[in-house]
Amino acid sequence: MCLAVPGEIVSVHEREGLKFGRVAFGGITREVCLEYQPASQIGDFVLVHVGFAIATVDREEAARQWAVLKELGEVE
Amino acid sequence: MKFVDEYRDADATAAVAREIHAAATRLHVIMEVCGGQTHSILRYGLDRLLPPQVELVHGPGCPVCVTPLDAIDRAHAIAQRPGVIFTSFGDMLRVPGSATDLLGLRARGADVRVVYSPLDAVELARKTPERQVVFFGIGFETTAPANAMALIAAKRQGVTNFSMLASHVLTPPAIASILQPRDNRVQAFLGPGHVCAIVGFRGFESLAQRYRVPIVITGFEPVDLLRGVLAAVRMRERGAFGVENAYERNVRPEGNPAAKHAIAEVFDVVDKNWRGVGAIPKSGMRINDRYRAFDADYIYDVGDIDTREPEACISGLVLRGVKRPCDCPAFGKACTPETPLGATMVSAEGACAAYYAHRRPA
Question: What part of B 99-138 touches A (C-beta under 8 Å)?
Answer without folding.
Answer: 116-120, 138
